[in-house]
Every structure is written in structure tokens, then in C-alpha cells.
Design the sequence.
């Protein structure tokens, strides 16, 4: 089920969403829904239990996503990506980047809580 809601968004946010939508060949509405969904489901690492923080430290992409990402990066280097594949690559790179940031945040929290030794 969905509901239509009208929002007045700040211009900088709209500009960012338009740029992402254009680059990924998606509708601006889809980009904004993805952003809202991510914001609603990504609990700040600092609020996670020790067990959840440690699990975040070990985050990895799904093997199928990793294989597809590798294939798309190869095709990009070769200059053979289609428009749809470019959108897939952008989406997977976003997943990868968010995962790496979350993993780094979890590592910091784990070290701060004494769950893991600092990296040296």
C-alpha cells in the first residue's frame, strides 16, 4: 500500500536528487523514495547492541551482488555498458559505498566500546 504525500523540499536537496536521477536514469520520485527508505531503516550504529555492532564490522556485499559489480566494472572499463547496466552499476556502487561507511562506523564504535582493539 502506498500513499501520496506532498512535500516542499529545499532546493539543494532537489538538485542532488535530480542529479542522481539523471545519472542513474531513474525518476526523481524513485530516488527520493530510496533515500527515505534508507533513512528509515538505517539505525545509527551508536544505537546498536554490541553484538549488532560486531556484526556490522563484518559486513560484506552479497556474493551475487559482488559478482555483478565486478562484471559491470569490467564492462565499464571496456566501454561496453548499456544504459540499463550503467544504472545497475550506479546502484551497486551506492550499496558498496554505504556498506563501507557503515562498516567503518561500526569499527569506530567497536573500538570506543572496547569490543575490538584499535587498528594500528
Sequence:
Amino acid at each position: 500500500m502506498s500513499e501520496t504525500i506532498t512535500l516542499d523540499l529545499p532546493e539543494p536537496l532537489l538538485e542532488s536528487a535530480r542529479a542522481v536521477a539523471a545519472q542513474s536514469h531513474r525518476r526523481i520520485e524513485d530516488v527520493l523514495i530510496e533515500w527515505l527508505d534508507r533513512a528509515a531503516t538505517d539505525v545509527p550504529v551508536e544505537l546498536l547492541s554490541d553484538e549488532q555492532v560486531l556484526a556490522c564490522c563484518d559486513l560484506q556485499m552479497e556474493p551475487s551482488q559482488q559478482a555483478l559489480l565486478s562484471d559491470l566494472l569490467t564492462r565499464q572499463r571496456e566501454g561496453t555498458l548499456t544504459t540499463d547496466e550503467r544504472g545497475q552499476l550506479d546502484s551497486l556502487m551506492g550499496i558498496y559505498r554505504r556498506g563501507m561507511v557503515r562498516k567503518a562506523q561500526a569499527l569506530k564504535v567497536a573500538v570506543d566500546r572496547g569490543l575490538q582493539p584499535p587498528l594500528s
About this structure: The CA atoms of residues 23 and 98 lie 18 Å apart. The helical segments are 11-24, 28-41, 50-57, 63-78, 83-112.
